[in-house]
Amino acid sequence: MERVARAYAEQAGYQFHRNVGAGAFKQTFLISNKDGSVALKVLRDTCSVVRTQREIDAMQRCSHPNIAVR
Side-chain half-sphere of 6: how many Cα atoms within 13 Å? Predict the structure, then answer.
């Protein structure tokens, strides 16, 4: 999963820093660019689509300057 995170970071103009956490369905990495640092979540192939959509929906309802939703 780190390979995927590194490839995404490079392609998107970010610098890869490190793994910051892992769970049953995803791994989270710290990446940054000139605008600051962000967390990049990479989903495992076995991740539930329904569970992932619930997490996305919940994050989109959040309003905080440190939460970026794309």
Answer: 6
Q: How many structural domains is the chain composed of?
A: 1
Q: Which tokens sit at 26?
A: 């995803």
Domain containing 21: what range? 2-61
- Within-domain flag for 38: yes
The span from the CA of 20 to the CA of 66, in Å, is 16
Q: Which of 65, 63, 61, 68 lies closest to 39, judged by CA? A: 68
pTM of the model: 0.76
- Give the model's confidence band at 55: pLDDT under 50 very low, under 70 low, under 90 confident, else very high: confident
Helices (H) and strands (E) in the chain, counts: 2, 3
> Which CB contacts under 8 angstroms, 24+ apart, belong to 43-48?
44/1
Query: Is 44 contained in some domain?
Result: yes
